[in-house]
Amino acid sequence: MRTLLFVCLAAVLCGALAKSKKDDNKVKIAVYYESLCPDSRRFISSQLAPVWRDFRGAIKVKLVPYGKATHDNINGKWQFTCQHGPDECYGNKMQACILKDRSLHDTEKMELVMCLMANASPDKALDTCLEQVKRSNSSDKMKNCASGAAGDQLLASYGDKTDLVQRPLSFVPTVIVNEKFDQAVQDEAVNDLKAVVCRVAVNKPAAC
């Protein structure tokens, strides 16, 4: 029994190490954005979406929906102020709930965010986008999360992560490649993310 347990643990550990090594070779792209920001919507729809689909095995994407918002805990309750108003706060919470939902696969999360950001009203397009990924049964759960304490807590945590980059962000979306902010890379990435990925990739993807 102990031998079997050791073999299983070794297999799990080896698998984790192999995945970690594989991820080390991926271009890491972190996007700090807002759900109703025109520049964020343009970047995710015209830059990130095609790069994610063409370079899926070569990149690792982290999405942080918060932007230039602020958050304060007043009498035990989170209060948010978002650059484009309350609807954006709700839209940010909705995407935070999607990104942290363990029942969704990473591909589904990306497709949902890309669908929402391509919609004229990202804060109101949840059901349409859930239908596209055949997850309509998750609608009530997502809406309850976004409108409740869970959504508040998730957005506050994304706010803390955003504040570690810059408080407030000087530009939204802020794009960080390989975990190090570089203004020149940021300026290029918002207009030609593919060129950035092709230049910094350790193993050049075929699409380059």
UniProtKB/TrEMBL annotation:
<protein>
    <recommendedName>
        <fullName>Gamma-interferon-inducible lysosomal thiol reductase</fullName>
    </recommendedName>
</protein>
<keyword id="KW-0964">Secreted</keyword>
<dbReference type="Pfam" id="PF03227">
    <property type="entry name" value="GILT"/>
</dbReference>
<feature type="signal peptide">
    <location>
        <begin position="1"/>
        <end position="18"/>
    </location>
</feature>
<comment type="similarity">
    <text>Belongs to the GILT family.</text>
</comment>
<keyword id="KW-0732">Signal</keyword>
<dbReference type="InterPro" id="IPR004911">
    <property type="entry name" value="Interferon-induced_GILT"/>
</dbReference>
<keyword id="KW-0325">Glycoprotein</keyword>
